Amino acid sequence: MSLQHQARQAASFVRGADIVIGIAVDHGTGRAARAARLASAGLAKYYPGVEALIAVCGADGEEIPPVDAKVVRLSTRPGAVTERQDATRLLIELAAELSAKALAILDPDSAVPESIDSLLRPVLLAGQDFAAPVYRDSSGSGLLSSLTLYPMMRCLYGRCVRNPAPGEFAMSRALLGELSEGGGWITEAARRAPSLWIASEALDRGHRVCDTLIPARGPAVRGASGQVAALLSLIAENEGRAGRVLEGPELFGVPAEAGSDRDDARSGALAARFLAARRDLEPVWRTFLRKETVDRLMCPGERGGVCLSDGLWAHVLFELADVFRERTWFGPPALETFPVLHGGRVAAYRAGIGTDIERSCQVFDAVRTRFEQNRAKGDPVPCLN
Fold this sequence. Notes:
Elements: H1 3-12, E1 19-24, H2 32-46, E2 52-57, E3 70-74, H3 83-97, E4 102-106, H4 113-126, E5 130-137, H5 143-157, E6 169-172, H6 173-181, H7 188-192, H8 194-204, E7 209-217, H9 224-237, E8 250-252, H10 265-285, H11 291-298, H12 310-326, H13 338-350, H14 357-376
Parallel strand pairs: 1-2, 1-4, 2-3, 5-7, 7-8
Antiparallel strand pairs: 4-6, 5-6
Helix pairs in contact: 1-3, 2-4, 3-6, 5-9, 5-14, 9-12, 10-13, 12-14
């Protein structure tokens, strides 16, 4: 049964819904019951009397006790490479079929009842089309976003949310309709990291996007390698497009200090991993990065640390995107060594290098401009400054 047919069939059993709460659960994890209770509690507290539906996807065989809201069960193929993508698309197809005003997809591990209101309020009351969370305590889970995903996505699209690959987010009826009807689901980015691709589509189509504060601890990063591969795919897809004026994100109840993760203890382990592994990985890096880039990666920083600046990091990402562009299948060695490279950027961040994220966005944009200018002249990679 196709995803669209399953969505239509499920919608036929539901009279209607203004709000759909989507819960995508990995098979065999036993988290569906907790997530359904949490979603029901959030709806009862913040949206009593509103016609709502809880859609649980991927929890085949798991019993879900009765809750004070309508619940529908959806199925994906267990263990499929595209299981996460299928679940996300199925929830979107269902919400679009019901003409819901908003769909909120929750993270079954970290969501709290307040997540319901934090995600839905910007869409239902403020006219936003895509709302992504900023957590009061990110505990380091945002380092990949703040140091890599956010500045690069903002460089590509001119604006972005702070967490462009969220585990939970909300969408408007307008965006749901476009994603349901469009054919972009076959792209590499949609397959690797559905939420990052959805954010890119919202940005590219000119929809309103915003950050929204969730007063809880953020989840640990899952699928980081997929997010990186999806990002490189988006860089490749945007090759040759004119640059855009950089704009800051719209904030919905998000204080400036929210989401700070610089002092995360885990980042110290990432930095140590880079320092310990870079000598062994140097020959591998030289197979897909320019000699000048690798030489700079190997240079010791102050007190034996790492001097991986915003400009050097942007070069690494654009060079990796060139590798991605030339090879339809992108795997070892480039992607497998990315966590170590990311550890080097974390080490520099902890040492105070490139801690101004606004400045990072400007540096990424400048590097992209040089790459585009050099590519037009037949030299795809500009020299490092």
